[in-house]
Design goal:
Length: 407
C-alpha cells in the first residue's frame, strides 16, 4: 500500500514502516512500533492507514513509543516504560482506548518488550496495569466516574442516557422496551449536547438484562429511507421439502425487477456442521450469484456462531446473529452497540463496555461485582471491587507487514 509517513518531523517519501495488525473483539488497530518516537504521525497519515479501502484498515492506530520519548507521556516515565499513543481512525487523538491497551499489551509481550506477565502501560488517561495470558488480556483501571444525564438523538429518536468518564467521554443510553439493538441505524453519528461533551462523546446503546441471542441477535435489512423496505418471510416447515426453509427478501417491492433471495438448507448439504446461505445479488436470470458459508459452531469459537453481512457506507445494513450462551456467575449482563467518536460504529469498544458495565452495576444497586458485556464483536467482562475495575477480553495479533514508500 502507498502510505506516506512523516519521519523525524518531515515527510519522508522513502519511508518503509513496519506495522502489526491486531484486534480486541473486532475493535482493530494498526500497531506502529516506534520506540524512539521518530515517526511524526499526522492526522492525515493516520486516517490513510485506517482507510479500509485505500489503506490497511482499522478503527485506530496504536503507536508503541517509549514513555520517555513522547511529550504527552514523559512525566510518566518513572511509572511505565511504554506509552500507548492512541489515534482514532479519523486522525483524532483520544485519552483512552480499552481494547487498544489490551492489544498494546499483547504486542509488548509478543515482542518481548516487557518482562513478566503483568506490567504497566502509560496512556493519556494515566498508567494502567496489564496482565497477559494466552487467551485474554486484563487491564486494571481506575473506577469510571458515572455522571449526569444527557441525551443522544439518532434517526429522529432521542434517547436518555448517563454520562460516564472512563478517561475518555461516554454516554450510555438504554433502549426503550420493545426496541432492539438491531433497530438502530448507526451509519451516521448520533447528535449530542455539545455543552455536556465539548470534546465529543462515544455513545453506547444498551439493552439491559440481556439474555441469549433473543435480545442481542438482530437482523436488519435495508435501511434505506422511504417506502421500499424489504421483508423476510420464513416458512416453517418449508414449502418444498421436509428439511428446507427459506427467507425471501424483496427489494425493491415484489413487483419490481430486482428480486433476491436467501435460501437456507438445514441440515446443510455438505457436512454435518456446515450450513450455507445463497444470495442472488441480482435477479435470477442474471449471472452474479454469491453465497456465504457459515460454520456452526465456528472453529475458533466453539460457543458462537454468527452471520455478518456489512455493507456500511452503502445503503444496506447488516445481519448479525449471536448464539453466545448466557454468562454464569455475573452480577449483570448487558448487550450494546456503540458509535465511537472519531471511528464510527465499531464492533467493540472497551472503554464503552466499562462505561456500560458501571451503569449496569449502579442500576443493579451494587458497588462491586462482575458485569458481562456482549458486543457485536464478542464478550468482555468488567469486575468492580469498589476501588478499581478489571477489564478482560481477548486480544489478538493477526498480521505484520510494511507500508510501501509513496511515489
Ligand atoms: N473512540 C474513542 C477512543 C477509542 C475507544 C476504544 N475503541 C476502546 O476500546 O475503548 C474516543 O475517541 O474516545
Amino acid at each position: 500500500m502507498m502510505v506516506g509517513v512523516s519521519v523525524g518531523g518531515r515527510l519522508d517519501k522513502g519511508a518503509v514502516v513496519r506495522f502489526v495488525k491486531g484486534h480486541g473483539t473486532g475493535n482493530d488497530f494498526v500497531i506502529l512500533p516506534d520506540p524512539d518516537g521518530v515517526l511524526a504521525l499526522t492526522p492525515e497519515t493516520v486516517a490513510a492507514l485506517c482507510d479500509r479501502r485505500f489503506g490497511i484498515g482499522a478503527d485506530g492506530v496504536l503507536r508503541v513509543v517509549r514513555t520517555a520519548k513522547h511529550p504527552h507521556a514523559v512525566d510518566l516515565a518513572g511509572e511505565a516504560e511504554w506509552f500507548m499513543d492512541y489515534w482514532n481512525a479519523d486522525g483524532s487523538i483520544a485519552e483512552m482506548c480499552g481494547n487498544g491497551v489490551r492489544v498494546f499489551a499483547r504486542f509488548l509481550a509478543a515482542e518481548a518488550l516487557v518482562e513478566g506477565a503483568t506490567f504497566p502501560i502509560a496512556t493519556r488517561a494515566g498508567v494502567v496495569q496489564a496482565t497477559v495470558t494466552p487467551d485474554a488480556v486484563s487491564v486494571v483501571l481506575p473506577l469510571p466516574r458515572v455522571g449526569a444525564g444527557s441525551t443522544a438523538t439518532i434517526g429522529g429518536l432521542t434517547f436518555t442516557g448517563t454520562s460516564v468518564d472512563v478517561g475518555n467521554p461516554h454516554l450510555v443510553c438504554a433502549l426503550p422496551s420493545g426496541m432492539s439493538l438491531g433497530d438502530l441505524d448507526l451509519t451516521s453519528a448520533p447528535a449530542y449536547d455539545p455543552a455536556a461533551f465539548p470534546t465529543g462523546v462515544n455513545v453506547e446503546f444498551v439493552v439491559p438484562g440481556a439474555t441469549e441471542a433473543a435480545t442481542f441477535g438482530h437482523i436488519a435489512v435495508d435501511r434505506r429511507p422511504g417506502p421500499d423496505h424489504g421483508h423476510i418471510a420464513v416458512d416453517s416447515p418449508p414449502a418444498d421439502g421436509p428439511d428446507r426453509g427459506h427467507i425471501a427478501v424483496d427489494s425493491p417491492p415484489a413487483d419490481g425487477p430486482d428480486r433476491g433471495h436467501i435460501a437456507v438448507d438445514s441440515p446443510p448439504t455438505d457436512g454435518p456442521a456446515r450450513g450455507h446461505i445463497a444470495m442472488d445479488a441480482l435477479p435470477a436470470d442474471r449471472r452474479e450469484q454469491g453465497h456465504i458459508a457459515v460454520d456452526s459452531p465456528p472453529p475458533t469459537q466453539p460457543d458462537r456462531g454468527h452471520i455478518a453481512v456489512d455493507r456500511r457506507g452503502g445503503e444496506f445494513g447488516h445481519i448479525a446473529v449471536d448464539k453466545r450462551p448466557v454468562p454464569v456467575g455475573v452480577d449483570a449482563h448487558v448487550a450494546m452497540r456503540v458509535y465511537e467518536r472519531g471511528s464510527g460504529e465499531t464492533l467493540s469498544c472497551g472503554s464503552g463496555a466499562i462505561a456500560v458495565a458501571a451503569v449496569a452495576l449502579r442500576d443493579a444497586g451494587k458497588q462491586t461485582g462482575v458485569v458481562a458485556v456482549d458486543l457485536p464483536g464478542g464478550r468482555l467482562t468488567v469486575a468492580f471491587d469498589g476501588e478499581t475495575c478489571v477489564f478482560t477480553g481477548p486480544a489478538v495479533l493477526v498480521a505484520t507487514g510494511e507500508t510501501l514508500p509513496t511515489t
